[in-house]
Specification:
With about 400 residues, the chain is mainly beta. Helix content is about 5%, strand content about 40%. Strands 1-2-3-25-24-23 form a 6-stranded antiparallel β-sheet, covered by helices on one side. The longest helix has 17 residues. The protein is globular and about 60 Å long. Pfam families: GSDH. This is PQQ-dependent sugar dehydrogenase.
């Protein structure tokens, strides 16, 4: 393991770092010590030496980030705050107008996405665990206009509410948002853990991906429109807890990552009307170690993942890399890992995953989101009480 050179930092700081590094080396936590004093870190990769630097720190359990046209960032914090972060890393005060959230378990303020016409409208959408009374909650999506002059959300309205709300679980909200090239909005919905059997039925919003118009209306070409007893917003079903979503830059198709149980995290290409199998098929097992259902991993009429992980890496954010800044990465998919604090890079040949590279081993941070920045670097969120925005780039000679 090797630290980046401290540049113009004082000799006193360098000496202190050396002492801390020796202690940390003995304790197996050298990288964490370097991060504590704000120095960039270096990691090997197939593309060359990577440099991780800290853009900002002091966010409480940040869940999602979105880049504004001027390069600043909009970041959600799970307890229920939305903040602007400048390009230089200055964290702004909470933006007013965010509705109350159910900030328990895995719930809270979750994903945030800019509307395709943001430059003209200032439109922003976000997903959250919505309190529904008597301790019940469910995923909801609200959209409004970001007024930067007053640091507030204007004209806010809820465009979608998952049904049914459940009171016996605070887990598996899903909640990633992705705008398709045609302007429609995909929303990933978890099965809330206790409602997993309903992921296979079409009269509810549990364990589904839904497709909406930005105003909350239902697109006429959704696969189940007009079918009796089926919710018309459903795009696909049989999902467990999809917490990553991105649009493939060449095909325009939605891809998602979803948590498996004990093993069996998945990367899926999501096609209209398809059944992705949970809880009938999975490559994982129950947390007890017992098989899930009949222990099947394949069944006719149910989709296979593009890639899966055993053991689980606790997949979260997903991004496709399209920039020229790091040519070796172009066309790759990046998957954030909560469990091992790693970043998985998947090489693709069309829609087929042909190789996986694990990056940032030893960083020891829970990575909640990954996004490509306007400068071509990757930006990561750490899901921690004192969470950070990290910038990942290639070390230039």
């Amino acid at each position: 393991m090797r630290l980046a050179r401290p540049g113009r930092r004082s000799l006193l700081l360098v000496g202190a770092l050396a002492a801390l590094s020796l202690l940390a080396y003995r304790q197996g936590d050298l990288r964490a010590t370097a991060a504590a004093v704000g120095l960039p870190l270096q990691f090997p990769s197939q593309a060359g030496t990577l440099v991780v630097s800290e853009l900002a720190r002091g966010l409480e359990q940040p869940w999602s980030l979105a880049f504004l046209p001027d390069g600043s960032l909009l970041v959600s914090e799970r307890p229920g705050r939305l903040r602007l972060v400048s390009r230089e890393g200055r964290i702004g005060a909470p933006i007013s107008g965010v509705p109350a959230v159910h900030a328990r378990g895995q719930g809270g303020l979750l994903d945030v996405a800019l509307m395709p016409d943001f430059s003209a409208s200032g439109g922003v959408c976000f997903s959250y665990a919505e309190p529904r009374g008597e301790d019940a909650s469910a995923t909801a999506v609200a959209c409004g206009r970001l007024d930067r002059a007053t640091a507030s959300l204007r004209e806010l309205r809820v465009i979608y509410r998952q049904e049914p709300a459940l009171a016996d679980s605070d887990n598996h909200y899903g909640s990633r948002l992705a705008f398709a090239p045609d302007g429609t909005l995909f929303v990933t919905l978890g099965e809330r853990y206790s409602g997993r059997e309903q992921a296979q039925t079409l009269d509810n919003g549990l364990g589904k991906v839904v497709r909406l118009r930005p105003d909350g209306g239902i697109p006429a070409d959704n696969p189940f429109v007009g079918r009796a007893g089926v919710r018309p917003e459903i795009w696909s079903y049989g999902h467990r807890n999809p917490q990553g979503a991105a649009i493939h830059p060449q095909t325009g198709a939605l891809w998602i990552t979803e948590h498996g149980p004990k093993g069996g995290d998945e990367l899926n290409r999501v096609l209209p009307g398809r059944n992705y199998g949970w809880p009938v098929i999975t490559y994982g097992r129950e947390y007890s170690g017992l098989k899930v259902g009949d222990g099947l991993s394949q069944k006719e009429g149910m989709e296979q993942p593009q890639h899966y992980w055993v053991p689980s890496i606790a997949t979260s954010g997903l991004a496709f890399y399209t920039a020229d800044r790091i040519p070796a990465w172009k066309g790759s998919a990046f998957v954030a890992s909560l469990k091992f604090g790693q970043l998985a890079r998947l090489s693709l040949d069309g829609d087929k995953v042909v190789a996986e590279e694990r990056l940032l081993e030893g960083l020891n941070r829970r990575l909640r989101d990954v996004r490509q920045g306007p400068d071509g670097a990757l930006y990561l969120l750490t899901d921690e009480t004192n969470g950070a925005i990290l910038r990942l780039d290639l070390l230039k000679p």
